[in-house]
Design brief:
The structure is a single chain. The chain is mainly alpha-helical. The protein is built from one helix and no strands. The longest helix is centred in the middle third of the chain and has 63 residues.
């Protein structure tokens, strides 16, 4: 019977390869999550800006409406 060290066995090499692939995939996913978090933060900031400007426009339009009503009376 041939003696084969366990570290050189095919299944061990295959398992190491699978673990390495999983580590690479995990690393890629972590980078994706980081990028998505940055995008999320930027989009939230932009949304806040849009809301502020929308509120300002509504206030301006309402005050213009009040002025027009007063001029009609």
């Amino acid at each position: 019977m041939l003696s084969c060290p366990l570290q050189d066995h095919n299944c061990v090499r295959e398992l190491r390869s699978m673990v390495q692939q999983q580590q690479n995939r995990l690393s890629d996913l972590q980078m994706d999550v980081s990028e998505i978090r940055v995008q999320y933060t930027e989009l939230r900031r932009e949304l806040r800006t849009v809301r502020v400007h929308t509120r300002r426009l509504l206030v301006i339009e309402y005050s213009d409406f009040e002025s027009a009503v007063k001029n009609v009376e």
